[in-house]
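Action item from last meeting closed. Structure (85 res):
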């Protein structure tokens, strides 16, 4: 599971050749969520504060995440995405 970003204890990663729709995984402490890149649909549990940060980060980097999704589908190296400032 390649890590593409880390900020405030949150780890963002994508799996190679994962199922549709385009999404990423986020882990914070013992919680993990899956977030659809194009719709912001979230599955799983995470603290409200951490979830707000993940969704803010998604809004800033949606195009980069879609690019990484395509790279992951092709099993190519993923690009690091800037953390939340």
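Sequence:
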């Amino acid at each position: 599971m390649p890590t593409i970003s880390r900020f405030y204890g949150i780890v963002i990663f994508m799996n190679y050749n994962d199922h549709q729709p385009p999404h990423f995984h986020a882990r914070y402490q013992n919680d993990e969520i899956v977030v659809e890149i194009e719709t912001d649909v979230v599955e799983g549990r995470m603290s409200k504060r951490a979830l707000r940060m993940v969704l803010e980060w998604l809004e800033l980097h949606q195009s980069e995440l879609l690019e990484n999704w395509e790279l992951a589908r092709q099993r190519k190296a993923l690009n690091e995405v800037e953390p939340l400032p």
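Note appended to the action item: The CA atoms of residues 5 and 43 lie 19 Å apart.
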